[in-house]
Amino acid sequence: MCPETQWRLLMRPMSGTLLALALLTAPATAGAAPAVKPKAFAMCGVCHKVTPNAASAMGPGLWEVGGRKAGSVVGFAYSPALKSSKIVWTRDNLIAFVTNPKAKVPGTRMAFAGLKNPKDAAEVADYLLSLK
Length: 132
Prior knowledge:
Blueprint: H1 3-25, H2 42-45, H3 80-83, H4 91-99, H5 101-104, H6 118-129
Helix pairs in contact: 4-6
């Protein structure tokens, strides 16, 4: 038997073990927050938490915000304007809101003036939609 064949025969049983070990030690991604927050989110993070089951801070928690109806986090005191807005947080709605909250929802209590750079607003919206 040639050395190459001997090597393959020797490594074959180990390949399954190595694959199993790699899968067991790989970081879990389901339910984990994305590793990288956009720089523009730094201002948002002062008031909003982005982890599962985090208590609301100055603003409501943003975990699983994508697809959620605006003003629906239980226990947070939203403005009547946001509660009655009937907005569902899609990418377009998030971009519009983080760009100019008071234009998107007149009467909102959100004190933040908005992100003026469209690229920053899109990155923040994409980040928020990934929180699941």
